[in-house]
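Example 695, ligand magnesium ion.
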Amino acid sequence: MAGMEEIFGINVFNDSVMRQRLPRETYKALHKTIDDGRRLDADVASVVANAMKDWALEHGATHYTHWFQPLNSVTAEKHDAFISPLPGGAVIQEFSGKELVRGEADASSLPNGGLRSTFEARGYTAWDPTSYAFIKDHVLCIPTAYCSYGGEALDKKTPLLRSMEALNRQAVRILHLFGRMDTTRVTPTVGPEQEYFLVDKDLFDRRSDLIFAGRTLFGAKPPKGQELGDHFFGTIQTRVQAFMADLNDELWKLGVLAKTEHNETAPAQHEMAPIYAIANIACDHNQITMEMMKKVALRHNLVCLLAEKPFAGVNGSGKHNNWSMFTNTGYNLLEPGDSPHESAQFLLFLTSVIKAVDENQDLLRASVASAGNDHRLGGFEAPPAIISIFLGDELTEILEALEAGAIYNGREKTDMTIGVHMLPKFPRDTTDRNRTSPFAFTGNKFEFRSLGSSASVSDANVVLNTIVAESLRQFADELEKADDFRAALHALIVRTIHDHKRIIFNGNNYSLDWVEEARKRGLICLSSTVDALPCYTAEKNIHLFETHRVLSASELRSRRDIGLDSYAKMINIEAETMLMMARRQILPSVLRYAGRLSASCVSLKNAGASLSCGSALLSDLCGEIDRLKSGIDTLSGILNQKPAEGTPEKNAAYMHDSVLPAMAALRESADHLECMTDRTDWPFPTYDELLFSVQ
Ligand code: ADP
Ligand code: MG
């Protein structure tokens, strides 16, 4: 096998390839576009397109596609061959600048949330030159943004790029106030840790719920789950190891910096973390990672489950979104720093995030809302639906001392006047980090831990970038007017701590006491997607997104409606799948078993033996079968009464309030029956097989 250094990035049209293959002037012009977010001119585009095509053909590509991320959290591609007819019946392989820069996608079946009517179904894709093109399965993929004819965003990339721009504008203003005139650009960085499950494909194929919903809808708890904690960081199973090695190769070829891999808490659960990258690239790479995980798993006769809660009773999967901001001069703005000046700057950026999170708990919660993720958040296995920040005791004490105007009495005594004195060094707390917090400061970055495993990281980062941009905008407005910068800075930081400290919580976020305490503090608790998504169109939020030119009111409405619509559709699919499995697999199987049981009782009796528990067994079983049947009837009745033409909000609420409880009741009797029935009669693989069969 080739070494990592030889294969890394071989399928990527990256900077070194561009430097090699583009004329100097073109390379420089393209770089200007990439570095400064400038528009690419047509001549440059056509030279780049030609070089890209030659490179792609040499690497076995036959087609190209504008690769984009529509509003359903997956990626979309439509392949076009590099083919142009010549007179006389011949063809040549061509690719123009126009084809590189802009594409037209008749994507009338992709979700748009009312932004386009079908008569104007055209959408346009536009190249994002900051994210490198790559070859996947003989197709040159050009990362693109996707908009309507009127320029409204129909995808996840457009607002992400706009939010990065918004953050850049405001952060640079602040840095100039600190005299850092060499800073011309600030970029958010993201490192998403991706959790997933692997199950054997032969078992997967026998479960309609896994096939249609990506998660189990029935299944009794196995005798062993995750209670021994022996899977987390355990020795990686041989088959899984082979999968991981293969996955790493594929990701490295595509320029994804896959770094860390390990077993996670639940049996059959694993994690992969890349080295962080600029937010939009991290987002593209995470999409590639999820796609590759699924593809590579199949080569090993495995199926990769990315659903947030594939199995009841053991942990589900999330995606920790590590986030920070870097300057073009290579400086991490959330790194505490080594001088009084740097300490002050760090504190300002730190408090800008604290303020942003406190003022926009609703948006952060909405940004991670989905039917799948509702099963995790608040389930005592993932952060609760209540947003709070973990800072660690040391940093919290520092902020408290600042607010009280006191001298910090931690390790060393230090005068804390901001901008004059150093922050006392606080140890980077990595050992006993609080894993229960949804939003944790981990030394030089924040880790937003509420994202679902299958989600695009775009939504969460659009919100993060925008809300921090807004804090920084307010800070810059105030500080730019100040006569005495240092005094104004001190006052601003102290006031921000005072106003927003309620969002800081270093305790156990899984405890019920916290729910009560959070209520007292006035923190928002939005327990389901149905409560969370409408926040997108609250007046304060429309104003926020419009101020920073990230999303317009109609774009926000479309996002809210698509989210609610997918929620309702997902639950409908799950409910229909449950009914199918219950009616056509579980019911016939348990009836067959009941028949055998009763026949056994009769033949024992005829043989003169008396089985004292026979009739009790039979009556328990029949009682549960009756409950199953009535569970089927109830769920099916409720599904039939679904409002025909409700709003997305009403439909989603109906699924949440009426359908979910009926699904839970049906599951309960099916799971009881599983435990009462001869294993050989049970119609599909059970949890013990699914969770423990991959060795
Ligand atoms: P953990 O202990 O949570 O596994 P790591 O330090 O290994 O933490 O980092 C986890 C993820 O955070 C990795 O993807 C890593 O690249 C990313 N990360 C580290 N520093 C930053 C940063 N400054 N900005 C964004 N992500 C970062
Ligand atoms: Mg982490």
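Summary: The chain has a mean pLDDT of 91.
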